[in-house]
Automatic annotation (TrEMBL):
Protein known as: Staygreen protein domain-containing protein
Listed Pfam families: Staygreen
The organism's taxonomic lineage, starting at the top: Bacteria, Bacillati, Bacillota, Bacilli, Bacillales
Keywords: Transit peptide
InterPro entries: Staygreen
Location of the Staygreen protein domain: 4-150
Amino acid sequence: MSVFNPQKLSVKLIPPTTFSQPVEGRKYTLTHSDITAELFLDIGYVYNYKSIDPKMRDEVLATWKKDSHGRLYLVGKAYVDGGEFSQKVADTRFKIFTKEMATALNGIVYGDRPFYVHYPFLVDAPIFIHYLSTYPQYRQVAFYGTPRQYLNHSIKQPDFPHHQT
């Protein structure tokens, strides 16, 4: 599995997004370079579709949503296939996504650290990833813990977020 390296993460806020707004509907577009191993995170009211490679489709998209009880959770999606790949290729893509998802979530959560200072209760919100596929065995939803575990893992401080004084 890839190891998350904060020095290889570039973060861009898409205006008018700030590190405190929006909350519900806040969207993350995470892409990467296979050559340099860099991660690119765009945070906005909309996904940054221009950053997505239409042939590779190896991005992770995520957004904050409310459940039926008004609780926020982070839900993401990974495009395994839409019928254009063989089952063998879809299987490979699914395995790569599941192997690399923790690194992707590290990038998303770590890249938006100031957001959690404004909304510390969200460090304990659940994270779900939808794997999108025409093959039933890959079309699934997986629980990936909470932002807290990615923040702790990324910065080695068990009680993050710290409030700035």
